[in-house]
């Protein structure tokens, strides 16, 4: 099946597919807020992971590469030598191929037979865990192709996956289909240390039984970022890191140990649009959310919860301006927030603001934001609006 440009845009659901089309009649806007991605830190994190695990790495770049930008991050991981990439939506895989990514790409989304021509056209591999894989195989066979698949077993997560007790039956069926080529066996761990061991044993039993039947399943993989820090026994033949690629640890224990010396890749920045002086009794934002008890100065930042910035973090958030941390008032709206800047009389509109990242000797991380908001670093990063421009920095 051949997709023309219009069909592809409809398929991907991306209303901003023409964002790179610029002319005098279609000028590129100046950006009041933007995200910077450090190429140096990307390479550092991937190399540190590879040094530790010494097995192939399938980089997880689902959810817009954890908020970092699917295309920007995927292309660089491909360039840096990642062994494979994993996404959770077929549209993501197509966009990566359209952008020139050449390494293996695995779709963890459901098996949908109607999408078979797309898998074939773009050389996309598929996790086999739900859906009509027999129909998918038949359609691939008619196209003269065999889709590369990894069997994904549910060993206790009870989310996506073939129930482990039924896995052998499915493997027998799939191995006899000419439109499928099995090259892997995987599972998702619950990240409970004791139960992880049970899950790994279940996965290995599926592998062993398949071997006895003469069915070669290929690479076994189960470990996400959390598994990297548990035991070498988690690594098997491949790992699937997510959050560690972006410079963050999956839990408090691994963060404290800092065994990989990870470096955050993303910096979220903006510029002040106004500086105001408040007098006693003056208020800020809807419902007079903040009231000045004395003469104070505030700086207006054009970032709000529509950009993915946590909303319910009254009195805890901070922003970096001119190398110093300033508190954010409890006035965050869809597109704006205000910083209290009484100690710095020289701050003015146009000054750069760092909301995540370093400025001078100070730093604010996604971990800091997560702690202030009472959420995980995953939610902070993934929540960043995909329309915020991403720029690659070579530092």
Q: How does the SSE layout of this entry go?
A:
Elements: H1 5-12, E1 33-38, H2 39-53, E2 58-60, H3 62-66, H4 70-80, E3 84-87, H5 90-98, E4 105-107, H6 116-121, E5 125-128, H7 133-142, E6 147-154, E7 162-163, H8 167-175, E8 180-187, H9 193-212, E9 219-221, H10 225-228, H11 252-257, E10 266-271, E11 274-278, E12 283-284, E13 290-291, E14 296-301, E15 318-321, E16 324-327, E17 337-340, E18 352-359, E19 362-364, H12 366-373, H13 377-382, E20 390-393
Parallel strand pairs: 1-20, 2-3, 3-4, 4-5, 5-6, 6-7, 6-8, 8-9
Antiparallel strand pairs: 1-10, 10-18, 11-14, 12-13, 14-17, 15-16, 15-18, 18-19
Helix pairs in contact: 2-4
Concise summary:
The protein has 395 residues and is an alpha/beta fold.
> Structural class of the secondary structure composition?
alpha/beta
By CATH, the architecture of the largest domain is named Alpha-Beta Barrel
Report the major sheet.
8 strands, parallel
Total individual domains: 2
What is the multimeric organization of the chains shown?
single chain
Q: What do the pLDDT scores average to?
A: 91
Please report the total strand number as a whole number: 20
Number of helical stretches of at least 4 residues: 13
Whole-number radius of gyration?
Answer: 24 Å
The CATH superfamily of the largest domain appears as: Alanine racemase
Q: Strand percentage, roughly?
A: 15-25%
Helix content: 25-40%
- What is the CATH top level name of the largest domain? Alpha Beta
CATH topology of the largest domain: TIM Barrel
Separation of the first and last Cα atoms: 42 Å
Shape: elongated
Residue runs with pLDDT of under 50 for 5 or more positions: 1-24
């Amino acid at each position: 099946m051949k997709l023309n440009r219009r069909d592809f845009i409809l398929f991907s659901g991306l209303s901003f597919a023409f964002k790179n089309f610029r002319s005098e009649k279609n000028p590129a806007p100046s950006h009041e807020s933007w995200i910077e991605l450090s190429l140096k830190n990307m390479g550092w994190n991937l190399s540190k992971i590879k040094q530790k695990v010494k097995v192939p790495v399938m980089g997880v770049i689902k959810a817009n590469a954890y908020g970092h930008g699917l295309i920007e991050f995927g292309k660089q991981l491909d360039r840096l030598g990642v062994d494979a990439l994993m996404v959770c939506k077929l549209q993501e895989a197509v966009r990566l191929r359209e952008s020139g990514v050449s390494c293996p790409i695995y779709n963890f989304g459901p098996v949908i037979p109607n999408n078979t021509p797309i898998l074939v056209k773009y050389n996309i591999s598929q996790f086999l865990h739900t859906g009509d894989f027999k129909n998918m195989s038949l359609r691939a066979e008619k196209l003269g192709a065999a889709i590369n698949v990894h069997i994904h077993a549910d060993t206790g997560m009870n989310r996506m996956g073939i129930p482990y007790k039924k896995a052998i039956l499915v493997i027998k069926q799939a191995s006899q289909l000419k439109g499928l080529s099995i090259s892997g066996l995987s599972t998702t761990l619950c990240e409970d240390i004791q139960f992880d061991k049970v899950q790994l044993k279940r996965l290995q039993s599926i592998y062993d039984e398949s071997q006895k039947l003469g069915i070669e399943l290929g690479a076994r993989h189960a470990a996400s970022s959390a598994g990297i820090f548990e035991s070498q026994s988690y690594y098997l033949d491949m790992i699937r890191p997510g959050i560690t690629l972006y410079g963050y640890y999956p839990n408090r224990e691994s963060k404290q140990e800092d065994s990989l010396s990870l470096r955050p890749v993303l910096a979220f920045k903006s510029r002040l649009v106004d500086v105001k002086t408040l007098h006693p009794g003056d208020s800020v934002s809807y419902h007079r959310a903040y009231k000045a008890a004395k003469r104070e100065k505030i700086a207006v930042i054009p970032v709000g919860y529509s950009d993915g910035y946590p909303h319910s973090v009254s009195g805890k958030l901070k922003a970096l301006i001119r190398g110093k941390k300033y508190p954010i008032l409890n006035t965050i709206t869809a597109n704006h927030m205000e910083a209290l800047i009484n100690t710095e009389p020289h701050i003015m509109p146009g000054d750069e603001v760092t909301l995540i990242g370093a400025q001078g000797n100070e730093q604010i991380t996604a971990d800091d934001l997560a702690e202030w908001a009472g959420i995980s670093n995953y939610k902070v990063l993934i929540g960043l609006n995909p329309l915020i421009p991403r720029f690659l920095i070579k530092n």
